[in-house]
Inverse folding.
């Protein structure tokens, strides 16, 4: 796939949106190069190892209803689970539509990151490359990287959280009308943040009888994901706690937030939950898009000089979340392949 001919569309962001865009471009015969500042692919569709176990700490399961999206999930060569099957509590889910009739829910024993890793197969990818600026030129746009180098392309795509895309759009100076309009659109709402704590407990810890809990009595913890239930036979109990958006916003810069979450876990689950043998905190500054902020489709902007700039990501398709990210990437690829804005 990486050998497809032509000058590459350069995509900033190897999350689900950027990877689905690159794949669809490659399927349409157009070369794509994907850059990401991180060490691995997937962005917020994130899995890491804790005590040797894969643990999801962004979205803890995948859900959707678009048959094409579900087929893309089915194509992942990983151990597929209909998870969560046992849901506890009546607190608000992160994405309420995840449990609406007709919605299909999936997880992988290897972690949700198996999905973006599969999307990335065969693509041209450069990791640990942070883009810090955009400079429109004559028929091209130059992407400035944090090592001071530039990468020129006729078509660039920003496949990022909307706030991160806006940061890069702000570097296009003076802002042409299309960029100013895009920034105005993005400024109409902001994404929720989320604090996530991964915790592994010793073999004596009791195993909760559910896959996911949405505690209705907590102002701190929105969700407890029983991660080790995705891996039957796992010797340790592993949980991921996700804090409510409002509480996360208040405590984003509080160094003691993991302690508060564990104290709340003890109140909800029992005293044992206060003392995991290993814990790993993660701050998501831009976790999920506000449902009221969703846009109907990705943007494809014409820059002065003739280059084109696409903007995709979870904000740019109805429904939000991973399914929307995937759909926005494919929709943008379709518009690029159709020569829109050229
Ligand atoms: C705690 C949490 C819970 C969630 N729960 C759900 C849920 O229940 N259901 C659901 O559907 N979704 C959920 N989501 C949201 C879902 O994970 C995202 O909507 C989706 O993964 C976004 O994909 P994306 O490709 O648009 O963006 P991202 O995954 O954010 O990808 C953007 C990529 O760009 C990279 N990047 C950023 N800036 C730069 C730069 N300047 N240069 C180079 N690279 C850069 C990042 O490293 C990242 O890899 C949750 C997310 C979190 C964090």
């Amino acid at each position: 796939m990486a050998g497809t001919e032509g000058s590459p569309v350069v995509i900033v962001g190897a999350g689900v949106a950027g990877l689905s865009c690159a794949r669809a471009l490659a399927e349409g015969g157009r070369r794509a190069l994907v850059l990401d500042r991180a060490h691995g692919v997937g962005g917020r569709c994130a899995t890491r190892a804790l005590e040797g176990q894969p643990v999801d700490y962004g979205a803890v399961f995948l859900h959707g209803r678009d048959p094409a999206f579900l087929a893309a999930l089915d194509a992942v060569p990983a151990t597929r689970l209909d998870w969560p099957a046992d849901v506890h509590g009546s607190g608000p889910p992160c994405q309420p539509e995840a449990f609406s009739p007709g919605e299909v829910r999936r997880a992988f024993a290897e972690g949700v990151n198996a999905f973006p890793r599969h999307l990335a197969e065969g693509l041209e990818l450069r990791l640990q490359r942070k883009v810090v600026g955009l400079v429109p030129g004559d028929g091209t746009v130059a992407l400035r990287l944090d090592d001071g180098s530039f990468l020129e392309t006729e078509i660039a795509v920003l496949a990022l959280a909307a706030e991160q895309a806006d940061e890069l759009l702000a570097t296009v100076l003076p802002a042409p009308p299309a960029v100013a309009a895009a920034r105005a659109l993005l400024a109409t709402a902001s994404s929720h943040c989320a604090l996530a704590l991964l915790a592994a407990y010793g073999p004596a810890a009791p195993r909760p009888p559910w896959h996911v809990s949405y505690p209705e009595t907590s102002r701190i913890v929105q969700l407890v994901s029983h991660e080790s239930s995705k891996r039957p036979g796992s010797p340790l109990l592993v949980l991921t706690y996700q804090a409510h958006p409002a509480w996360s916003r208040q405590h984003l810069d509080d160094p003691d937030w993991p302690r508060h979450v564990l104290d709340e876990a003890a109140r909800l689950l029992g005293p044992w939950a206060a003392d995991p043998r290993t814990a790993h905190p993660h701050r998501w500054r831009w976790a999920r898009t506000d449902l009221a902020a969703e846009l109907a489709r990705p943007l494809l902007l014409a820059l002065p000089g003739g280059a084109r700039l696409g903007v995709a990501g979870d904000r740019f398709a109805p429904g939000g979340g991973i399914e929307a990210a995937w759909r926005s990437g494919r929709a943008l690829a379709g518009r690029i392949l159709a020569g829109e804005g050229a």
Summary: Residues 12-18, 35-38, 43-45, 58-59, 94-95, 98, 130-131, 159-161, 164, 194, 196, 242, 284, 287-288, 313-314, 321-323, 325 surround flavin-adenine dinucleotide (CB under 6 Å). Helices lie at 16-27, 67-74, 114-120, 162-169, 177-186, 245-251, 257-269, 321-337.
